[in-house]
Amino acid sequence: MDHMKVLKRAWHILWQYKTLWVFGIILALTTATASSSGSASPGSGSSNNNNQNPPEEFQPFDGGEFSFQENFEEEMEEFGRVTVETIEEYKGVIITVAVMAACFLFLLMIAGTVLRYVSEVALIRMVDDYEETEVKRTFREGWRMGWSLAAWRLFLIDLLLFVVLFPAFVLLGFLVALPAIITLAIGGGLAVFGVVVTVGLAFLLILFGIVIAVAMAMLIEFFRRTCVLEGLTVIESLRRGFAFVRQNLKDIGLMWLIVLGIKLVTPLAMFPIVVAAGGLGLVMSGFLGLVAGGLTGLFVGPGAAIIVAIFVGLPVFILLVAIPVTFVKGLKETYLSTSWTLTYREINALGELENGNALPEPDEPALQPA
Questions:
Q1: Dihedral sign (CA 7, 8, 11, 13)
Q2: Exposed/middle/buried for 27, CB within 10 Å: 0-12, 13-18, 19+?
Q3: Which of 7, 81, 172, 192 qualifies as a FRET site for 64, CA 20 to 30 Å off?
């Protein structure tokens, strides 16, 4: 198999067939797993350093004429008191809104799941169709390709794999921890031995998990393509996909390594985009937050003004950063899906050649004259 040919063809399709981008962006939005977290530690000046203070003439605010910290704390306490009273007064309304929000999030999760699997099927079928016909389908036509029984089957494949693998690893984790649990319960010198055994088994379990993750990363792509392109049921797709990977492990393994390299390089390529988007986001969100906070501060205290500034500025910052990042991730999803589909087609074509099912050469008649 010519892997470079597949990658170049996938790159060509990516830039020539822009309708695929829409489904790739939907896939990026609905399969996003990255999360960010941050922590902040409030700082405060020392209040027990009277013996080290400079002379009184160098402390212009020791007379109590101005104290921003005390003023801010009073405003925040007042804001908190009003908030609690408001919650108590409108408790029923708040509960109703919370239930409606939970229902909305649940419906949003269902919609995201539907969009994800329809987009996956659409990408696979549109690329396969483009290779067969050289026709670029519209978004509506692509959606019709994706809205099919195959999308439901892809969901069932993922669900079945989760139902099988997750409990299995939970059970293995419990068995790994069992020696430490038993020996710690018994006590004595066996406790150290039990912990050592558990640590060793945990290391083996991690290695086993890595092997399973690598195997599933290769298998899942062909579970999906055998299901979508061959119209197989869930169990048949699993069997066919497993046999397909086993018979072509060398070519598929090399493609997986190339895809892994692309996934590792992508964050580095996105770094300048994130920096530029983050800078623009800070400027715009900071400006809008200051305007909103300043206007709020004309009517209420600084505590509420700061909160309003955060609520206005933070969504703007997230939006300005998320849009370009999601767009690039959508292109990546489109390119990778196209590469795997072309890999599947290329291996199938090579298999037909090896089995003698290729078309006859143009200079040779298909049938000998009588």
A1: negative
A2: buried
A3: 81
